[in-house]
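## retry 2 of 3
previous attempt timed out at serialization; input unchanged, resubmitting
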Amino acid sequence: MQRYIQQLIEDFNKAESNPVPALDYGFEQIIQKIESDERVSAKQLLGVDYIELPPAERMTVQQTQDLLEAMLNALNANGTGVSFPGNGVPVKLAYSQLREKFSEGFLAMPGWHIDFCSGWCPDCAFAVYCDVCKENWTDEELKKEQKNSNF
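## retry succeeded, writing output
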């Protein structure tokens, strides 16, 4: 498994070293891109597809950390920033949630940021780590809403 993970990291390093050039869009083109929600596959943007990324359960914490770091660097170099809500987020959770984004593809126009916040805390994987959630929901309210949502 270590050799495979190293190969993935090398692929991400290539994507980081050779980012897709940012195009100079005019205002109308930017609006059209936003409205169209046009996406490119992870394979097209970074050279690695969702199906190639192993589940977190199959890796050690260190392997997960190394792969996550390579993913974040490649995304950032290609115009997509990423931040995880809260403090102390376990690396395997962060990796798993970012891995899911690879199945959706990424917005075609650079300059986007993934923050994993939909604004609805009860269905958020990061709720227990997120200060914003803690400011707006008590543990009891959160558990009650999660139960009502069949979590």
